Amino acid sequence: MKKILVLGGSGLVGSVFSRFSEKCYDLHLTYNTNSINDLKINSTKINVSTQISELKKLILDVSPDVIINTIAHSSVDLCETNHADADFLHVTIPKKILEFSSEIGSKLIYFSTDAVFPGELNKKYTETDLPSPVNYYGQTKLDAEKAILNHSNRNTVLRTAVIYGKHERSRFTNWILSSLKNNKMVDPFIDQFNTPTLVDDIAKTLVRIIDDNISGLYHAAGPTCLNRYDFAQLLSKHSKLNSELIKPVTKNEKKQLAPRPISTCLDSSKLENILKIKFSDITSGINHILN
Q: For all residues of the chain together, what is the average pLDDT?
């Protein structure tokens, strides 16, 4: 049975992946502030930003076949105003993980982002398109991608976007659904387009990548390209909530500290063709989390 170390195991991706795969692998999860209560799965509390020596000891002690790194700053604006923090967590820490894992030959799976692209409208980006981030968050993730892929041809980088699911850590869907249920207004952006991704699809994809030993750079996102306002409208429609509470807003009306690309929709056909899978479209994904 393969040993898998999941850094950020209490997050959305880590926790759903562990639920899908706990009978397939010998799992070890890390967490920082959100404890893991599943007694059947080994877990370690660690702050990777401040406990580098402990991180090294953990990796060497567990000696995993695969390390999945899901840890990242959740705030794009924080990265724009705190370059050093963004560099440390997104670039320095992955390089340290590569250094430690080299001693035991572990494969690294790293989660990147659609924010590495500049954001042209009416386009879906493939892996061969040239990255050109418009904000510092995207730049740090791109820097990490290069370090990881250049370090070993065994490693895997997955670019994904707006991961959602039936989970307390699914921020956008929970914000919309909770607000509408409580008769509160919401103001999602109408001029920022992505390809939202069902977390269950990511979990199943990780299993396939591990089992089939897939390496390289891949896009792993849903096929539906839409803005957050339309996403919210679909959530409202399928949950039979009041869509009149949804007010569209533009980035000029609701200022954000970091610049945002207009449209960074991803084409995931390369990975779908290799694994013979299909990522859920937005309607299927919403029906899944509601039902």
A: 96
What are 28's strand-pairing partners?
5, 42
In whole angstroms, give the CA distance from residue 263 to residue 166: 25
What is the per-residue pLDDT for 121? 86
Q: Tell me: pLDDT of 255 over 90.
A: no
Q: Is residue 156 packed enough to be buried (19+ CB in 10 Å), middle (13-18) or exposed (0-12)?
A: buried
Per the listing, tokens 């790293």 go with 110
Q: What is the pTM of this model?
A: 0.95
φ, ψ for residue 179, nearest 5 deg: -65, -45
Domain residue ranges in the chain:
3-164+196-223+266-280
**Are 155 and 180 within 8 A, CB to CB?**
no
Q: Which CATH homologous superfamily contains domain 3-164+196-223+266-280?
A: NAD(P)-binding Rossmann-like Domain (3.40.50.720)
- In the chain, what are the helix, strand and coil shares in percent, each to the nearest 5? 40, 15, 40
On the CB side of 50, how many CA atoms lie within 13 Å of its CA? Answer: 4
Alpha-helical (H) ranges within the chain are 12-21, 52-62, 76-81, 83-87, 93-102, 136-151, 171-181, 199-212, 228-239, 269-275, 282-290
